[in-house]
Amino acid sequence: MKLRLDPGAPWPLGATHDGRGVNFALFSAHATRVELCLFDPDGTETARITLPEYSDEVWHGYVPDLPPGQLYGYRVHGPYAPKDGHRFNPYKLLLDPYARRYAGQLVWDDALFGYQIGNKRADLVMSKTDSAPFLPKCVVVGESDPPRSPRPNRPWHDTVIYEAHVKGMTARHPDVPEPLRGTFAGIADPAVIDHLVKLGVTAIELLPVHAFVNDRHLVEQGLSNYWGYNSIGFFAPAERYVSPGAGLEQFRAMVDRLHEAGIEVLLDVVYNHTAEGNALGPTLSFRGIDNAAYYKLAEDKRHYYDTTGCGNTLNIGQPRVLQLVMDSLRYWVEQCGVDGFRFDLASALARDDKDFNPSASFLDAVGQDPVLSRVKLIAEPWDLGENGYQVGAFPPGWAEWNDLWRDGLRSYWKGDMGMLPALGSRISGSAEIYDRRGRKPWASVNFIAAHDGFTLRDVVSYNKKHNAANKEDNKDGHDDNRSYNWGIKGPTDDPAILDLRDKVRRSLMASLLFSHGTPMLNMGDELGRTQGGNNNAFCQDNEISWVNWTDLGERDRAFLDFVRGLASLRAEQALLRSPRFLHGEPVAPRIKNVSWFKPDGEEKQSEHWTDPVAKCIGASFAGDGQILLMLFNADAEPIDFIFPYFGKRHLRWRLLCDSAKGLIRPEPVVIATGKTTIEGRGLLLFERTD
């Protein structure tokens, strides 16, 4: 094929169709030559063109008359010198980091590796086998319209997040048409959206939807990378979630439908590492384009500085790599309608060099960006590097996953001793962590369970993990689960044990939705989803991970109704979602905005918090003429609680929630005075009536 080639421009990066042809631009600081390879729909290479210009470390060229839909890839020339950090290999076809779409599937073969597999010198000997037959191809994409529905723009303090997986949420849903199950269109189905709306969800947080790779070792074991934390492209949606021929429009249509229902769309994004792994991983894109620029290298440049546990760390401190990430984020916001992001292993992104820095180039760039600084930003505030645990250290404007909430509340309701201080802090927004630099309680994203770990049902059904299906001899996954089976491991028909498990999961869920901060629900927990004790189901693309919508027993249906009631109470009671931290400031004579009480009705003093055996406590929240009273009892036995004085008198209290009995706004109305009894493992919520 003979094609005319013009110099083109070094911007924008990627393949840009302007209606007359396509401009190709690729950053590589250390390459000596870049070849653009074009392919026909069958994957046959039809042209190989050297990009004619090199400007500001960007290789570029313009091909007139090239239409959208054209398949392409790159071959990049330069030194193959792993000891110097360079791994150029023109025998390997490479994916464009800016590609908006990929066609075809990756097929694992030794040809995908830049070195000779099996050679005694390992990665020091370059492979000369063509990888093109085994690699997906990039697709030139034309312009299209962004989503049209107005954004919900939900205030942070009114936000309830639902973490979900595109396939896991829809694969077994009987009301979603079978061809749409496992796709973005499945998430947009009215039955799924109706469930979220009735649950009180205001934002859905989708596990990674960027193009990602199934790891070779998983494929060889008959498994797959189900979660998707193995990105290879930051602009293209994973084809497995798109119906054949639908393209990005299906994602945009999903965003429109969710926005129409008042639900924001958050994406879990993985910019900390890529699917190319360590020095012995495949050469698919970044490694072959410019290994020394895209990745953080160790002192021995043959190897990588890895803070992610995945073999490599993306070099966000490099200006062009930072630009890649920022361009990707803005693309998903401006062109796809996304409302925010949860950043996987975010501490890795805040290391310009080796140390965490709250003013790292990435955090500063996001903070000043007129687009990204206005969307919801959530950090997973840890990585696997030295001093990687940084809960509370991210700058203003960021929310953070607060695993201390998870651990503290699981331990408290399990009945562990000495947990009252943790309970008090977590219920009131974890102020000792987040109350600085003008941050608000919403900065604490509270959760009982998430994709990584036990489901809520498994928290009350297993003492230990059961990960045999992952084929790692049960060595993977966390060992510190703060869980308890209450008498029998796993499934049981014992009504006493089931009653106790139900009590505990109701109290955990009530604690979550009644806590200050941002609550996050784990997909299917409201339906009693179980993974059979597997607390690391990243490779289980099957019934272990998928939501079971149809086989709900009476207990799970009752629990679903209870969770809906909790969310409704949170939405109507402003004192449960304070936009600011409460530190006991007076709001009326002898009434403070938050107070803590012993079961005898006396206000708790500092020395009372250190009682290791105390498991019962009361908390009041007051403001705008209203008072709410929450009573907690993690003991096994009932406890009488004397209502405290407010002002100079006892008040009358209307019961709003009794987690032990599964009651929300009970009928007939329950009015209490003087004292009440809290069942074991129970939580009561009252509002004043006079």
TrEMBL record:
Keywords: Glycosidase, Hydrolase. InterPro entries: GH, GH13_cat_dom, GlgX_Isoamylase_N_E_set, Glyco_hydro_13_N, Glyco_hydro_b, Glycogen_debranch_GlgX, Ig-like_fold, Ig_E-set. The keyword Hydrolase applies. It comes from the Bacteria. Gene3D superfamilies: Glycosidases, Golgi alpha-mannosidase II, Immunoglobulins. GO terms for molecular function: amylo-alpha-1,6-glucosidase activity. Residues 163-570 form the Glycosyl hydrolase family 13 catalytic domain. Residues 469-482 have a biased composition (Basic and acidic residues). Residues 467-486 are annotated as: Disordered. GO terms for biological process: glycogen catabolic process. PANTHER family: GLYCOGEN DEBRANCHING ENZYME. NCBIfam families: glgX_debranch. Belongs to the glycosyl hydrolase 13 family. This is Glycogen debranching enzyme. It comes from Methyloceanibacter superfactus. The lineage of its organism: Bacteria, Pseudomonadati, Pseudomonadota, Alphaproteobacteria, Hyphomicrobiales.
